[in-house]
Amino acid sequence: MQIQREVLTKIREKLKKHLLQDLNLSPLQTEELLTMYQEEEVEPYKFYDPNNGTLWILYSPKRSTIYSFLFENTQDMLNLLSDALDELILKESLIGVEILEEESHKIIDLLIRYGFRPFLRKRKNDLKFVRFELSTAIYFDRIKGKEIKPKGKYQKEKVVIKKLPSITYDQIKETLREIFILLGGIDKYVQKGMTVVLKPNVVADHGMRNGKYVGGVVTDKRILKALIELLLPLAKRIIVAEGSSINRKETFKLFELYNYFELVEIDPKKVSLCDLNTDDTEEIPVPYAKRLEARKVPKTLLEADVIINLPVMKTHFAAVVSLGVKNLQGCMPPLEKYMTHFFGLWQNLVNIHHLVKPKLTIVDALVAQEGFGPVYGEPKEMGLLIAGDNPVAVDAVCMRIMGLKPTDSPAVYLAYIQGIGPIEEENIEVVGNSIEEVRSPFLLPEINLSNGPHFKIFC
After folding, report:
1. Could you report the per-residue pLDDT of 369-425, keeping only the tens digit for each?
2. What is the dihedral of CA 149, 154, 156, 157, to 10 degrees?
3. Is residue 139 within 8 Å of residue 93, measured between CB atoms?
4. In whole angstroms, what is the distance from residue 165 CA to residue 158 CA?
5. What does the CA dihedral 401, 419, 144, 370 come to, rounded to 10 degrees?
6. What mean pLDDT comes out for the span 264-279?
7. Rg for the chain (alpha carbons), in Å?
8. Mean pLDDT across the stretch 21-45?
9. Which single residue of 112, 206, 210, 426 has CA 20 to 30 Å from 394?
10. What are the backbone angles phi and psi of residue 208, rounded to the nearest 5°?
11. Which of 204, 197, 192, 191 lies closest to 224 in space, CA to CA?
12. Which of 264, 263, 245 has its CA nearest to residue 205?
């Protein structure tokens, strides 16, 4: 502890000298900044190369943010910075850099060459800052082939795979009943008097083709109906809640298109539909503040006792798959759906899972979707329901069924790295049918770049 205090005192003095002499801050500004660093719980991170000097990185794990760089006896700043950051991202995954505007002029070229991108400018009192974010594609490139230790230790998760003998309503309901038994019983999830939110995927109107319903685009209404009938004896209220991502102003029109209003008729006093795109929201801080410091979460989700996530098994032209992790994108208000595509969709999908925590994920793989998903692909009959408590574990099993590796999807892989759930086979107990029994490789989206030889897609 004494050594740590001595190090902190030494770094504080170095930083003070750097701010006063190198960046020409006033004594008042310098003290203001040092106080801010203290409030943000900034820690010194030391990287030493005997042939290229020392780099001190002033970093806040609480906010996943670097606030300053102090180089000592350095010949090649880019190599030292790159080596230090490679080491840091293995420990912390995606990070940001928020530095004084004066310092950014000196180091911006190094940050961009490493893989950071300018994100925004901000002021705190009379100090100006520039924030940079690390490109997710660059992050995955830089950790490729290295040993990844996920945040925290995972317990073994159970995932149920059930192959239905026929895709009829009665069989769907009976299979859901069997799934609950294998996972510990309905009362493990829902107790008397609880409010339950069912979150389906009702992304767009593409599930109707030539006036006829086709599976693999939106969650099959029969699954929702069966779940409602199974849960009604216990639940005080059941809310089917979605905020359509493509037709963002048309959620209720989509409910009507897919005849979801029939679900309310099961018990109009207890069952309702909710458009999360128009719901009241509450701003909630994001743990570790990666990409965004806070998210607006619909109150319907915050006030629910239980959330059950009901994605469809399908491919996705950017995310590779759209399953449990991806399905929670529909929980966010329209502006945030739009913003997160620019501010880092994969990280923000992980952020949602810190704030909206489904107790159960049940994947609709009765009819899945392959090819150019999530809406333009082709239906693929699978006759499966896959379920478990942890969305990442469920997605990992689904991806193996689809002939993919869990690391193929940036959102699933990042969720694993950042502690949401396991993907390793030894950490997932599969019950019911085995993966081998039901595996059927999916056709993936094809993107033709022959007319753009210098065009590169990062996803």
Report:
1. 999 999 999 999 999 999 999 999 999 999 999 999 999 999 999 999 999 999 999
2. -110
3. yes
4. 22
5. 30
6. 97
7. 25
8. 88
9. 206
10. -110, 120
11. 197
12. 245
What is the topology classification, in CATH, of domain 2-143?
Aminopeptidase (3.40.630)
2-143 with 157-438: one CATH topology?
A: no
Report the alpha-carbon distance of residue 164 to residue 186 in Å, rounded: 20
Q: Which own/partner pairs from 171-180 qualify as long-range (CB within 8 Å, at least 24 positions apart)?
A: 172/220, 172/222, 172/223, 172/226, 172/366, 172/385, 173/226, 173/229, 173/230, 175/385, 176/223, 176/226, 176/227, 176/230, 176/362, 176/385, 177/230, 178/432, 179/362, 179/385, 179/387, 179/432, 180/230
Give the least confident one: 8-22, 30-44, 112-126, 133-147. Answer: 8-22
Write down the pTM of the prediction. 0.93
Residue 3 has pLDDT above 50, yes or no: no
In this predicted structure, the answer to whether residue 56 has a pLDDT above a threshold of 50 is yes
Domains of the chain, by residue range, sit at: 2-143, 157-438
Please give the average per-residue pLDDT across 133-162, as a whole number: 94
CB 176 within 8 A of CB 219: no
Strands 195-200 and 306-310: parallel
Amino acid at 431: V
Contacts of 187 (CB under 8 A, 6+ apart): 234
Structure tokens at 456: 């590169």
